[in-house]
Amino acid sequence: MTRPVVNKVTWQQVGHVTQPGRYMFRFGWLSVTADDLSVWEQFPDATFTLVKTTGKSAPDEAEEFHLGAFELRQSSLRHEK
């Protein structure tokens, strides 16, 4: 049995975006919400899971993603204390 690949991204990997919106990256379109940004503003090292929202209807179409669950690194938790 093979495990599904779970892709994760950091704020640094998405260019420290500062506004909610839809952004094009090498992996496809990414929708970032104000709530996503508030997590990154409080925990800059947080890593979000990429969640695919639509399938490609044509081979040349980019995939669509939004940010799902996030993980905090130990350094982020120590910084918060």
Output the keywords.
81 residues, alpha+beta, 5-stranded mixed sheet, 2 helices, globular
Q: Can you give me a brief rundown of this structure?
A:
With about 80 residues, the protein is an alpha+beta fold. It has a domain of about 45 residues. Helix content is about 20%, strand content about 35%.
Strand content: 35-45%
Helix percent band: 10-25%
Radius of gyration: 14 Å
**Helix and strand run:** EEEHEEH
Number of DSSP strands? 5
- Counting DSSP H or I runs of 4 or more residues, the number of helices is 2
End-to-end Cα distance: 41 Å
Strand order of the largest sheet: 1-4-5-3-2
Task: Describe the main β-sheet briefly.
Answer: 5 strands, mixed
* Low-confidence runs of at least 5 consecutive residues: none
The class by helix and strand makeup works out as: alpha+beta
Mean pLDDT: 86
Spatial shape: globular
What do these coordinates show?
The protein is of the alpha+beta class and 81 residues long. It has two helices and five strands. It has a five-stranded mixed sheet. It is globular and about 40 Å long. The N and C termini lie far apart (41 Å). The relative contact order is 0.22. The mean pLDDT is 86.
